[in-house]
């Protein structure tokens, strides 16, 4: 998703773009393993880049989906408190989300929660009306179409095996599905390799450990129960 969006933006700006994808199709790795949620911007620290980009990206994504008729729904989300002791934390989350630009946040009591979602039993919940869902595959396809319409070339089954600096840019060595190698000279490289981004950075000579770029998969729980509402 990020690579396709970058390719579309660069091609639209008049750059010559070659997008290399190691799979046989687009968006088949982590872009096909996400929840497809459009986040309102509740959880990030106020003033952080994540908070600012989430808020701006939410509005831009809704606008893109509406403009290009990409399947999506602005259906809202309930962040549920299951005990009275969690209600204060909901208030804190509401304040943080409002500071981050998430619109329409509201604390609902248990009766209001059940009115929206009868199967959910909660003491209270934070209602986030700007949260939604999007068809990730269709969104990927829209970026690919935009990139190609502005002259970008998309090469599937093309794996980057080496990246070396050269005068004025980089030399990228690529191997295709038939293990046939080729070299690409370019002025810039955008590393959007997802969970392989640290390996690609190492191939370019970066000290991944020293710079803190190493990807270390972990399981993270926010401590909250979220329910995507069907009633809006």
Question: What is the topological layout?
Answer:
Elements: H1 2-12, E1 18-20, E2 37-38, H2 49-68, E3 72-73, E4 77-81, H3 87-99, E5 106-109, H4 110-116, E6 124-128, E7 132-134, H5 136-149, E8 153-155, E9 159-166, E10 169-175, E11 181-186, H6 197-203, H7 208-211, E12 225-228
Parallel strand pairs: 1-8
Antiparallel strand pairs: 2-7, 3-7, 4-6, 4-12, 5-6, 9-10, 10-11
Helix pairs in contact: 1-5
Summarize the structure.
This protein is α+β, with helices and mostly antiparallel strands. The protein is built from seven helices and twelve strands.
Q: Could you walk me through the main structural features you see in this protein, from its secondary elements to its overall organization?
A:
This protein is 33% helix and 22% strand. It is built from seven helices and twelve strands. The longest helix has 20 residues, at 49-68. It is of the alpha+beta class and 232 residues long. The model has no long low-confidence stretch (mean pLDDT 93). α1 packs parallel to α5 (136-149). A hairpin with a 5-residue loop joins β10 (169-175) and β11. The strands form four sheets. It has a four-stranded antiparallel sheet with strand order 5-6-4-12.
């Amino acid at each position: 998703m990020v690579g396709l969006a970058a390719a579309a933006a660069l091609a639209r700006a008049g750059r010559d773009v070659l997008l290399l994808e190691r799979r046989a199709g687009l968006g088949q790795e982590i872009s096909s393993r996400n929840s497809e949620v459009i986040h309102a911007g509740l959880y990030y620290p106020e003033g952080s880049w994540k908070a600012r980009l989430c808020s701006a990206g939410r509005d831009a994504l809704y606008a893109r989906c509406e403009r290009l008729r990409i399947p999506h729904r602005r259906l809202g989300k309930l962040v549920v408190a299951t005990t009275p002791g969690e209600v204060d934390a909901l208030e804190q989350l509401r304040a943080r989300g409002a500071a981050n630009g998430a619109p329409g946040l509201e604390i609902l009591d248990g009766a209001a929660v059940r009115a929206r979602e009868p199967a959910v039993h909660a003491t209270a919940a934070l209602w986030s009306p700007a949260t939604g869902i999007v068809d990730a595959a269709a969104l990927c396809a829209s970026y690919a179409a935009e990139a190609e319409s502005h002259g970008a070339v998309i090469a599937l089954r093309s794996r980057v095996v080496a990246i070396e600096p050269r005068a004025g840019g980089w030399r990228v060595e690529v191997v295709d599905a038939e293990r046939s190698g080729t070299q690409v000279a370019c002025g810039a490289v955008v590393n959007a390799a997802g969970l392989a981004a640290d390996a690609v950075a190492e191939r370019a000579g970066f000290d991944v450990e020293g710079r803190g770029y190493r990807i270390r998969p972990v399981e993270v729980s926010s401590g909250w129960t979220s329910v995507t509402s069907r009633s809006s």
